[in-house]
């Protein structure tokens, strides 16, 4: 459980190796730069169990590094406890959203607010597409979307 006075956010995508670790790393950097990182519990996870304990995709890591951001995240699957302990669960697309809502229904008294991360995008790009089968340009687009959304989300929760 998060300590009193802290907020918590879990970023979620299908495999937790492309989109959600980028979002987690971007948000952690923003919270650090804003001097509020100690007020947040920040993590990311997957709806699937395909990549458990894997490092993020090398293209995602390269994209983050290009922007001066590092991450040591290891992929993990969303657990029942996550629905009890995280204030916000922010996901990338409609499939993630329906899967999370389905899992949440199995958890008594869950209090997480489950939303699309893209719902915070000032440019109104609701869906953050999976760049796995794409190019470096697609990872850059994910990064840019995460920056816009995380900035708006952090501002709303400051």
Automatic annotation (TrEMBL):
InterPro entries: LMW_PTPase (IPR050438), Ptyr_pPase (IPR023485), Ptyr_pPase_sf (IPR036196), Tyr_Pase_low_mol_wt_mml (IPR002115), Tyr_phospatase_low_mol_wt (IPR017867). Its EC number is 3.1.3.2, 3.1.3.48. The keyword Cytoplasm applies. The active site is at 13 (nucleophile), 19, 130 (proton donor). Signal peptide: none annotated. Keywords: Cytoplasm, Hydrolase, Protein phosphatase. Residues 7-156 form the Phosphotyrosine protein phosphatase I domain. It catalyses: a phosphate monoester + H2O = an alcohol + phosphate; O-phospho-L-tyrosyl-[protein] + H2O = L-tyrosyl-[protein] + phosphate. Belongs to the low molecular weight phosphotyrosine protein phosphatase family. This is Low molecular weight phosphotyrosine protein phosphatase.
């Amino acid at each position: 459980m998060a300590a009193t006075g802290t907020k918590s956010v879990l970023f979620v995508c299908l495999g937790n190796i492309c989109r959600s670790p980028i979002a987690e790393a971007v948000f952690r950097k923003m919270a650090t730069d804003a001097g509020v990182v100690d007020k947040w519990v920040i993590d990311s996870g997957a709806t699937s169990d395909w990549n458990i304990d894997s490092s993020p995709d090398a293209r995602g890591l390269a994209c983050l590094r290009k922007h001066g951001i590092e991450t040591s995240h290891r992929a993990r699957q969303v657990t029942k406890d996550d629905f009890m302990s995280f204030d916000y669960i922010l996901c990338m697309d409609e499939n993630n959203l329906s899967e999370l809502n389905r899992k949440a229904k199995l958890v008594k008294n869950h209090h997480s607010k489950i939303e699309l991360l893209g719902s915070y995008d000032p440019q109104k790009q609701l869906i953050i597409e999976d760049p796995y089968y794409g190019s470096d340009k697609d990872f850059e687009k994910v990064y840019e979307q995460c920056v816009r959304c995380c900035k708006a989300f952090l501002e709303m929760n400051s």
